[in-house]
């Protein structure tokens, strides 16, 4: 079973199956939300958990790699996956599993992503500039985990730009950014996976490279749900259909993680401070 590979994160507070004033008698109120290992994904995951638990649901967050979560959603081991990059970055997963789920809503559109370099590399402004200067970059491109959408697109980029003499150095996001930090401190040349929302653009003085061969295409980030969720849990479906986030809000959230607050506390604080937005998402 796929679910055996997932790590469940319940809420800090127990939620009853029916909150005062909410008629959930005919709804499925125990839900599982899939969360992949990226800080920005914690925003819709934990906001959904807090909001739905306030409505009377019991919500578990299941942590796993992207591929496992698509398989889990396909097998209905989870009810929702809140980080579908469509139509490009996750195209392989969407082609494989797309017939087994539906898209409920879009969190953000036209997400910026691609290859980043330090701004002090004034003569490096496109991926072609990197391809034409392999020695400057020690024949290396830094990318995140193998099998991730960005890693697969990096492989496609290397092929498209004829960068046969480059090696892709795959690692976790944290390790990749530690390498970025180290090399920027030493004023060295580095090219790496970059995207928003992410506070890397706050922590580092970096820029996106132009992509004249269009290997890095803009995507929407969407919420996928099981085909039965709309009928079984209309309250949750409304939330997933209407939730919209901004890059600035998500990047602020990620930076606030350094304050020592838990993800659950960040979500509770945001929900308390934005009741009108929550009501709009729930169509109240």
Automatic annotation (TrEMBL):
One GO-annotated biological process of the protein: choline transport
An example molecular function term from Gene Ontology annotations: amine transmembrane transporter activity
Domain ABC-type glycine betaine transport system substrate-binding, residue spans: 30-272
Superkingdom, taxonomy of origin: Bacteria
GO CC field: ATP-binding cassette (ABC) transporter complex
Subcellular location: Cell membrane
SUPFAM superfamilies in UniProt: Periplasmic binding protein-like II (SSF53850)
Keywords assigned: Cell membrane, Membrane, Transport
Keyword Phosphoprotein in record: no
Descriptive protein name: ABC-type glycine betaine transport system substrate-binding domain-containing protein
């Amino acid at each position: 079973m796929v679910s055996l590979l997932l790590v469940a994160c319940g809420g800090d507070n127990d939620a009853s199956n029916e909150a005062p004033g909410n008629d959930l008698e005919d709804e499925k109120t125990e839900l599982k939300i899939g969360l992949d290992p990226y800080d920005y994904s914690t925003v819709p995951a934990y906001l959904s958990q807090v909001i739905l638990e306030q409505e009377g649901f019991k919500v578990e967050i299941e942590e796993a790699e992207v591929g496992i979560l698509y398989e889990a959603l396909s097998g209905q081991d989870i009810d929702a996956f809140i980080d579908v990059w469509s139509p490009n970055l996750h195209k392989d997963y969407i082609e494989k599993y797309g017939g087994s789920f539906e898209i409920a809503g879009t969190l953000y559109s036209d997400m910026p992503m691609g290859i980043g370099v330090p701004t002090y590399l004034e003569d490096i402004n496109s991926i072609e500039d990197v391809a034409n200067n392999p020695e400057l970059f020690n024949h290396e491109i830094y990318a995140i985990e193998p099998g991730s959408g960005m890693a697969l697109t990096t492989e496609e980029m290397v092929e498209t730009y004829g960068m046969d003499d480059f090696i892709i150095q795959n690692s976790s996001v944290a390790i990749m950014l530690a390498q970025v930090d180290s090399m920027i401190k030493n004023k060295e040349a580095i090219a790496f996976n970059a995207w928003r929302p992410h506070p890397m653009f706050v922590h580092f003085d970096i820029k996106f490279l132009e992509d004249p061969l269009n290997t890095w295409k803009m995507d929407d980030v969407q919420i996928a749900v099981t085909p039965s969720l709309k009928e079984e849990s209309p309250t949750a479906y409304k939330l997933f259909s209407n939730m919209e986030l901004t890059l600035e809000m998500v990047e602020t959230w990620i930076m606030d993680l350094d304050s020592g607050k838990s993800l659950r506390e960040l979500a509770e604080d945001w929900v308390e401070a934005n009741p009108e937005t929550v009501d709009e998402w729930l169509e109240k």
